[in-house]
Amino acid sequence: MSAEQTPSGTPSTGAPSAAPTGPTDPTPSSPSGRPSRARIPLPTLRPPTGPPRKPTDARRANVLAGRINRGGDGPCYGLVTDDGRQYALHGTGKGAFAVGTTVRVTVGPPDPTADCGPGTPVTIVDISPVG
Description:
Blueprint: E1 63-70, E2 76-81, E3 86-90, E4 102-108, E5 120-129
Parallel strand pairs: 3-5
Antiparallel strand pairs: 1-2, 1-4, 2-3, 4-5
């Protein structure tokens, strides 16, 4: 038996079936005549539950930035980073750097024969002034 018939087999005389629902207005158009994009709200991020467990900035371990605290024309220099760490830089033919110069340094393993004073010893691969 169909839903439109009563148990006696005659068609039902109840209310007419509901018309399908859909947009009654045509899609709004932009001035250029093309349909505009639907205005669906963008998803939002939830507030963080706490600080990140790992650093969020990618940082290369062999690149340092800081101020020269022992300068000159080399081969030894001193460097202090913004977090207060001191490095003893060694590199021949890298140029002259005055005390107070801010530099970016790519470093390598220390030269065991060089003693450049206090700080973590490293060898200069590349050094350049910043700003």
